[in-house]
């Protein structure tokens, strides 16, 4: 059998941790090969080894049957290996084309020939149906588009083997559909793809083979045709996994959060939340369903004080929290799991332990009279790390060194632990493995059962359907319908999210 | 292979060695004996008690201006205005030292405080503009440098004297002079300022690493979005960082006004204490202890260099080149870092 990529018995250590321990991965030409494993299992590490970012301690790599020494990403590029990282690496203020040619600029008489490059990029984009505008600035395009730019970048450099590290974690369901189409077109052209994803559905849908890693060890490779999601999940975690969250019905009482006629503009001054009304009661999880870009981000930022609203009323337990500063909102009893963990959620260059006290470092026992008590801070961090199973060598490790999923778990630990009156969770399980998702969902439900109010914003319909007690559909800056999860289905929700008011029930 | 901490020590050290080596090559190229040259430098800095005293004197303001730059840097701000803050600090210290009569100790403390307040004020303006209007601090601080220079000149000429080019000496009660130290160093200009400098280095370390304020400042410097999310006031922290940074710079000026010179004078150009502070902070990796060590290196080079023309015939310009080379190597420290990583990867 001919393999384009063979990684044999790879071992990679980090201080205090073996991230890859004797892992073998063999990819055939023209296949989509899934890489599956829990958060922190070592998937990104393995791919970084293949891409020349890390040097393995043991093992060998063969490309097209020849043993190679991938010293750095340039060598990987030359061998036709391209990688789209879990967290994008684009320059915000540059155009699409400038980002793509960065590092391999075509030159004419010593100057960069950007016009020629633009043409080439546009042509490539059309060839693979990527639909990217070569002249747009990165900061003006959506996350989904940015990802396509990353894919284009690898194609521009002549990649034959594409590594996609959790590409779907940041995409909306619609964007995921499009990406899957793109991947299928790519393999038709003879490219090979290594796909990292936590979504078993996607693996079942597009992949040919699936290699599973558990806690740094290679478990094996299975044929996707001969397996099913349950088997995959148990191979990955090493035990049976519960897909459907066990949930007893909640017993909501009085209104906790009340939003009346709220209006919020985005940074360009366009009104994104247009007179929104919504109540969340104590002891209930309210899920906001909606397509990205319908004002969910602005709503959450307005509620948490990150953005000023232009008018309306917001109150929590009958006290106004309208346009308060973030600290005042926090002190009023609101916790917030932010959508963008790297931008808002973490100080990446600070130890994970100090990240656990971001909102209450100034309070006792974390500090007294303005002096920090590191002993107490790290004690607390240690117990949170244990309780929430955050995989990290220790509490002094920089947040940056944690795997994406474990960074998210650390944030959730911090927010839930404050036991707030209102927990706002924006995409809380983005990039988490099935086991961790199960855990987070049960935490949200636990909070609800403690008679807290939970506001869940998610693009994942599954998540909304499984966890919410009540679903509010957001479209064009307003709540256009409210439904019960047990009385609706994905199809109806999909229609509602597209702005069509429910025909069955009329106006909600 | 190396932790970050080790890197922060190893990289500057290598840079210094490389800078010295490159300096030696240049001396060779111009027909001077590098061994004799560096020996002269060593003697000029540590050769006898007088030189030692002068070196300490030179190091003192460098520590403070280095702290000023480093402190702002930790909060994510590039304070190019340390130079201007030094000038106003110098002037304020001398003004209090000449215009008022106060008991000993009290007088010098008030004069030092005045210098810190003046420097803080000079840092406050760019901090405020950045926090409220988003004006980049580099532009404002550069302009504030010129305002400080010319304002100080005109105040000395028309307010503190009658058209003279220098003020009276500060009152003895306000002086940092340390007669007994001067005596044992053969009447070098050493003064008590080094105590102030070390105290401030400790202060900076303590504030940044042990207090909630320092936690906020570093957080804002590291990721302003996450800081805002967690309830810190980004703008206020920017202002505070600039105020404290300016305070350190003002004290650097006071070292000259109350210690080395005992007066202030009209000047056609900058003191360079502030600008050198940028290099000191860079070399010291923006940490308090690093700044102290880097300042010692800088002061030593500067004072030792004075002896190179007389003892080894090497022109002082060459010494400036050596210093510049060291800075260059530090600035490109990431290249050394990269080489190390590559080397250690291969070694495995
Ligand atoms: N640069 C690093 N320094 C130290 N430890 C690291 C570094 N990068 C990763 N690790 C550790 O190696 C392990 C594997 O991390 P990796 O990022 O490969 O996980 P992953 O499988 O991609 O997880 P996720 O699904 O959460 O992205 C983790 O325990 C992580 O903390
Ligand atoms: Mg990963």
From TrEMBL, chain A:
Pfam families in alphabetical order: ABC_tran (PF00005)
Keyword set includes ATP-binding: yes
Entries under Gene3D superfamilies matching the protein: P-loop containing nucleotide triphosphate hydrolases (3.40.50.300)
Keyword set, alphabetical order: ATP-binding, Cell membrane, Membrane, Nucleotide-binding, Repeat, Translocase, Transport
GO cellular component: plasma membrane
Subcellular location: Cell membrane
Membrane topology: Peripheral membrane protein
SUPFAM superfamilies, per the entry: P-loop containing nucleoside triphosphate hydrolases
SMART domains in the cross-refs: AAA
A Gene Ontology molecular function term of the record: ATP hydrolysis activity
Acyltransferase keyword on record: no
Record-annotated ABC transporter domain positions: 5-240, 257-501
InterPro entries membership: AAA+_ATPase, ABC_carbohydrate_import_ATPase, ABC_transporter-like_ATP-bd, ABC_transporter-like_CS, P-loop_NTPase
Record-annotated membrane-spanning stretches: none
Similarity section: Belongs to the ABC transporter superfamily.
Protein's UniProt name: Nucleoside ABC transporter ATP-binding protein
Species whose genome carries this gene: Salimicrobium halophilum
UniProtKB/TrEMBL annotation, chain B:
Membrane topology category: Multi-pass membrane protein
Transmembrane regions: 7-32, 59-77, 84-102, 108-129, 138-156, 190-208, 238-258, 278-298, 318-340
InterPro entries reported for this sequence: ABC_transp_permease
One GO cellular component, as annotated: plasma membrane
Pfam families listed in its UniProt record: BPD_transp_2 (PF02653)
Domain of life, source organism: Bacteria
Keywords: Cell membrane, Membrane, Transmembrane, Transmembrane helix
GO MF, one annotated term: transmembrane transporter activity
Localization (cell): Cell membrane
CDD domains from the UniProt entry: TM_PBP1_transp_TpRbsC_like (cd06580)
Entry protein name: Nucleoside ABC transporter membrane protein
Species annotation: Salimicrobium halophilum
């Amino acid at each position: 059998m001919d393999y384009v990529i063979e990684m044999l018995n790879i071992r990679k250590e980090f201080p205090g941790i073996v991230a890859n321990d004797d892992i073998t991965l063999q990819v055939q030409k023209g296949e989509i090969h899934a890489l599956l494993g829990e958060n922190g299992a070592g998937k990104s590490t393995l791919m970084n080894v293949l891409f020349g970012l890390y040097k393995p301690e043991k093992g060998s790599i063969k490309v097209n049957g020849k043993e190679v020494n991938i010293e750095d990403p340039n060598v990987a590029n030359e061998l036709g290996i391209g990688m789209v990282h879990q967290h994008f690496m684009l320059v915000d203020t540059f155009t699409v084309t400038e980002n793509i040619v960065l590092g391999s600029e075509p030159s004419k008489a010593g100057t960069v020939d950007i016009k020629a490059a633009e043409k080439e990029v546009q042509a490539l984009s059309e060839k693979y149906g990527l639909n990217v505008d070569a002249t747009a600035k990165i900061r003006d395009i959506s996350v989904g588009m940015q990802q396509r730019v990353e894919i284009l970048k690898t194609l521009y450099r002549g990649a034959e083997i594409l590594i996609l590290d959790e590409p779907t974690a940041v995409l909306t369901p619609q964007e995921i559909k499009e990406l899957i189409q793109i991947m299928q077109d790519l393999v038709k052209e003879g490219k090979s793809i290594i796909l990292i994803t936590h979504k078993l559905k996607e693996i079942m849908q597009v992949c040919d083979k699936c290699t599973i890693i558990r806690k740094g060890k290679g478990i094996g490779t299975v044929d996707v045709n001969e397996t099913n999601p349950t088997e995959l999940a148990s191979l990955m975690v090493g035990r049976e996994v519960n897909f459907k969250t066990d949930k007893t019905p909640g017993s909501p009482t009085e209104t906790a959060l009340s939003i009346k006629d709220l209006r919020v503009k985005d940074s360009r001054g366009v009104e994104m939340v247009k007179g929104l009304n919504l109540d969340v009661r104590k002891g209930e999880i309210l899920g906001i369903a909606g397509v990205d870009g319908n004002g969910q981000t602005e709503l959450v930022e307005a509620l948490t004080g990150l953005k000023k609203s232009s008018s309306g009323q917001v109150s929590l337990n009958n006290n106004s929290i309208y346009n308060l500063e973030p600290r005042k909102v926090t002190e009023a009893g609101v916790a917030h799991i932010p959508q963008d963990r790297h931008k808002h959620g973490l100080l990446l260059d600070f130890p994970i332990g100090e990240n656990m006290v971001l909102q209450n470092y100034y309070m006792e026992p974390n500090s007294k009279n303005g002096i920090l008590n590191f002993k107490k801070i790290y004690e607390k961090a240690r117990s949170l790390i244990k309780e929430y199973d955050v995989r990290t060598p220790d509490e002094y490790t920089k947040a940056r060194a944690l795997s994406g999923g474990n960074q998210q778990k650390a944030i959730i630990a911090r927010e839930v632990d404050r036991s707030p009156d209102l927990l706002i969770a924006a995409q809380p399980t983005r990039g988490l493995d099935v086991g961790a998702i199960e855990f987070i969902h049960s935490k949200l439900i636990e909070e609800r059962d403690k008679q807290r109010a939970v506001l869940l914003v998610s693009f994942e319909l599954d998540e909304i359907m499984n966890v919410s007690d009540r679903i509010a559909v957001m479209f064009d800056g307003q709540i256009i319908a409210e439904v019960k999860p047990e009385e609706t289905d994905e199809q109806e929700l999909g229609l509602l999210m597209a702005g069509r008011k429910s025909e069955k029930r009329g106006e909600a | 292979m190396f932790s970050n901490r080790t890197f922060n020590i190893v990289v500057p050290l290598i840079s210094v060695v490389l800078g010295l080596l490159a300096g030696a090559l240049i001396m060779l190229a111009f027909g001077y004996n590098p061994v004799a040259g560096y020996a002269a430098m060593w003697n000029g800095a540590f050769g006898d008690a007088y030189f030692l005293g002068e070196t300490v004197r030179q190091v003192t303001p460098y520590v403070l201006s280095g702290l000023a730059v480093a402190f702002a840097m930790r909060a994510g701000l590039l304070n190019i205005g340390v130079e201007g803050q030094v000038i106003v600090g110098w002037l304020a210290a001398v003004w209090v030292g000449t215009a008022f009569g106060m008991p000993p100790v009290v007088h010098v403390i008030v004069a030092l405080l005045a210098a810190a307040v003046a420097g803080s004020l000079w840092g406050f303006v760019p901090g405020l503009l950045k926090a409220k209007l988003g004006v980049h601090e580099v532009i404002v601080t550069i302009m504030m440098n010129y305002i400080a220079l010319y304002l100080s000149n005109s105040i000395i000429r028309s307010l503190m004297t009658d058209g003279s080019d220098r003020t009276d000496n500060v009152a003895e009660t306000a002086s940092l002079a340390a007669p007994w130290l001067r005596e044992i160093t053969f009447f070098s200009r050493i003064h008590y300022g080094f105590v102030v400098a070390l105290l401030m280095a400790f202060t900076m370390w303590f504030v940044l690493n042990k207090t909630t304020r320092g936690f906020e400042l570093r957080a804002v410097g590291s990721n302003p979005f996450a800081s805002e999310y967690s309830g810190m006031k980004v703008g206020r922290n920017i202002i505070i960082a600039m105020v404290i940074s300016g305070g350190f710079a003002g004290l650097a000026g006071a070292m000259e006004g109350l210690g080395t010179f005992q007066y202030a004078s009209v000047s056609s150009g900058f003191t360079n204490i502030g600008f050198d502070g940028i290099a000191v902070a860079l070399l010291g990796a923006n940490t308090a202890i690093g700044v102290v060590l880097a300042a010692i290196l800088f002061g030593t080079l500067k004072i030792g260099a004075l002896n190179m023309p007389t003892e080894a015939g090497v022109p002082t310009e060459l010494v400036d080149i050596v210093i510049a080379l060291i800075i260059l190597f530090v600035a490109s420290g990431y290249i050394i870092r990269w080489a190390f990583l590559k080397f250690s990867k291969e070694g495995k």
